Amino acid sequence: MEDTECSNGPFDTNLTGGFPTNSDYGDSALKLLTPNLSVSDYFTPFDQQTAAATDTDLGSGAAVVLPDISDTTGTIHHFLLAAGKDSRLYLLDRDNLGKFNSGGDQIYQELPAGILPGGTWSSAAYFNGSVYLGSQGNSIQQFQFDFTNPTQPLLQPVSSTGTQFGYPGATATISSNGTNSGIVWAIEQGSGSPSPAILHAYDATNVANELYNSSQILIGGAVKFSVPTVCNGKVFVGTSNSIAAFGQTTPSSITTPQYVQGNYATPQPAAPAQTVTVPYNAAQTSGNLNLVIVGWNDATSQVSSVTDSSGNSYSLAVGPTILSTVNGEPLSQSIYYAKNIAAANAGANGVKVTFTAPAVYPDIRVLEYSGVNPVSPLDVVVSASGNSATSNSGAVTTTNATDLLVGANTVYTSTNGAGSGFTLRLNTPDGDIAEDRVVMSAGSYSAGAPLSSAGGWVMQMVALHP
After folding, report:
1. CB count in 10 Å sphere of residue 399
2. I want to staple 391 with a disulfide (CB 3.0 to 4.6 A). Which of 190, 199, 340, 409 is the partner?
3. CB burial class (10 A; 0-12, 13-18, 19+) of residue 103?
4. Are 114 and 67 in contact (CB under 8 A)?
5. The whole model's pTM is what?
6. Which range marks the domain in which residue 414 is found?
């Protein structure tokens, strides 16, 4: 089965069983059955005839099949992204493309005309819940899936590049280390005759943050529709008379922090607990870092100690951050860490948190990370509390490139998912989370997360450097 778009051509508005009687599918997105390539489903914009007459039809941009997207209930969605000259962005359900409806499009999501100014002659790129698309004569825009509606993830614009890319716009390429350290690469046709090719690199979590451009290097004339190629740690750019290769300048000894494993314990509603133990279920590696997030729903008890079976030493990173009584009870949270940990077999190491008195609704989350500095890992921390439908740590300025940012909250309601740019690692039965991201440059950052409804919350973020 194949999904594709077709451009200029007639469309037959006389339908039989919902399909064009004469099988004319101009300006449409198609689902084709293999091997005979018969049409099993399609989508055609409601204004196809007008768009065709004014040369603003669908099909100039490439259709992109997105990976499976899981909503907060665990339901999998199968999406196809389509765009064209009409400056709209179409998010189609591959299991029900929407067909043709003269009274208005009946599709999964349609971002209105003008969202992609100038029309689209390029292809989208996808990474870690975000779509990157550059329309003609405009910036590359980042659209991110918003999970506020638990059963209907929707694309929302969240950032755009400072550079505008002339005709035909930019087709981005993504490089990353798994789900971390994403970089958006794109080629600009610079000003001059001939137009020079200029390679740009942007932070995939926020494309307004440009990491690099090659404007000071003449690598050759730009070629329309060219796309950066990433291979073996290098980025290759084809020009009118050469192929330019860009490689890393960071010393190979510098590593990028990586998430290894996580677990949690929420012993209530049985009774308040004075001690809570959480095991690391997988084996632990010598030299890694343990992070322990301690949340609880009172302001009377305090954390008296954090220890583990392996004898690692824990230090307080931030907290306790306390929210006075909201919705009937206060909230408290602290974050601890142990650097340069000892190796342990699977299930052999358990973290024990002891309170000064039985704590109400203790929520203990433990995580392990590799690639963090074993001597002095802590860069900066920040914390905040509030009463709203979104929790946020507040902003803090990091001092290192490739910092690991870990955000966590303790909430009165529940958390719907990770904040913008973050990857969700833990979401406990109490609705409290742990999330992380690796940033590519020093700057101002914060951790946030959407809640199921307005209520009290405490949120903290720690920045750890390699």
Report:
1. 11
2. 409
3. exposed
4. no
5. 0.57
6. 258-464
